[in-house]
Amino acid sequence: TAFRPGTFLLVGIPGLEKFHLWISLPFFSMYIFALLGNLVLLFTIVREQSLHEPMYLFLSALTVADLLLSTTTVPRMLAIFWFRVGDISLGACIAQMFLFHFISNAESAILAAMAFDRYVAICNPLRYVTLLTHSVIWRLELAAVVRSLCLVLPCVFLLLRLSYCTNRVIPHSYCEHMGVARLACTSIKVNVVYGLTLALLSAGIDVVFIAVFYGLILRAVFQLPSAGARRKAMSTCGSHLCIIFLFYTPAFFSFFTHRFGGHSIPRHVHILLACLYVVVPPMLNPIIYGVNNKQIRETVM
C-alpha cells in the first residue's frame, strides 16, 4: 500500500543493536574532539592576522564544513545509540538528507580548491599573491556552495514525489538519498540515475581536478634541483593529501558498496563505515594540520 508516512524509523547500525551503547562511546569521544579541534583551528585562523593567507582561508572553510557535517548527523545518531529514539519526521529526514549531501559536496569542492592553491603555490609561486586574492578565494568558496546547492536540491523533490510503502524502517543511522528512496513503492530509477550523476558531477570531477593538479605538482617537484627543496615542497602538500585520503576513501567505498556491493558486504559493515565517514575526517583534519603545519602549531601554543 502506497502512502505518505508521517515518520520514518532510523535503526542505527542494523545487526549491532545490542552493542549500540558501546559503539556510542568512541563516536561520542570523536565528535567532542572534532568539535573542539575544529573550533580551536577556526578561532586560531580568524584571530591570527598572519594566517589570513589563501591556504588558511580555504582551511577555515573546510573546518566550517567539518563542523556542520558532523553536527548534522552525529547528535541524532547518539540519540539512537543511547535512548533508542529513532523516529524522525519526513520533513526532518529530508532536511537531514539535504544537509548531509550538500555539505559533503561543498567539502569536496573545497578540497579541489585547496589542490589548486597548492598547485599555484608550487608551480607558479611568483603569481601566487596576484592569482589567489581574497576576492578570488571568496568567489571559489561561493561557487562551491552554489554548485552543491544546485546539484543536491533536486534530490529533495525526487524524494517528495515518491509514494512510500508501509515499511518505514531505514536501516541506517542517518537519512541519505538512496536509503530513503528504497522505501518507496513506486519506481526509483530516476533517483538511482540522478544519484550516480550527482556523484560523477561533484566528487568525480573534483577527484579528476585534484589528480591533475597533483600530477603537475609532482612533475614540478621532481624538476627541482635539490633534495631539500623537493622535501620542502612536498611537505606543504602532505597535510592536504592526508585529508583528501581520509575524505574520499570512505566516501567512495560507501558509494560503490551501496550500489554495486550490497550482497557481498554485510550491511552493518557498510553502515558502520558510513557513520565513521561523518566523524573521523572532521576529528582528524585539525590534528593533521595542527601537527604538520608549523605556523598553526606555534600560534596555538
Automatic annotation (TrEMBL):
It is found in: Cell membrane; Membrane. Residues 37-289 form the G-protein coupled receptors family 1 profile domain. Its main location: membrane. PROSITE patterns: G_PROTEIN_RECEP_F1_1 (PS00237), G_PROTEIN_RECEP_F1_2 (PS50262). The chain crosses the membrane at residues 20-43, 55-82, 88-116, 136-160, 192-217, 238-257, 269-291. InterPro entries: GPCR_Rhodpsn (IPR000276), GPCR_Rhodpsn_7TM (IPR017452), Olfact_rcpt (IPR000725), OR51/52/56-like (IPR050402). It comes from the Eukaryota. It is a multi-pass membrane protein. Keywords: Cell membrane, G-protein coupled receptor, Membrane, Olfaction, Receptor, Sensory transduction, Transducer, Transmembrane, Transmembrane helix. Belongs to the G-protein coupled receptor 1 family. This is Olfactory receptor. It comes from Apteryx mantelli.
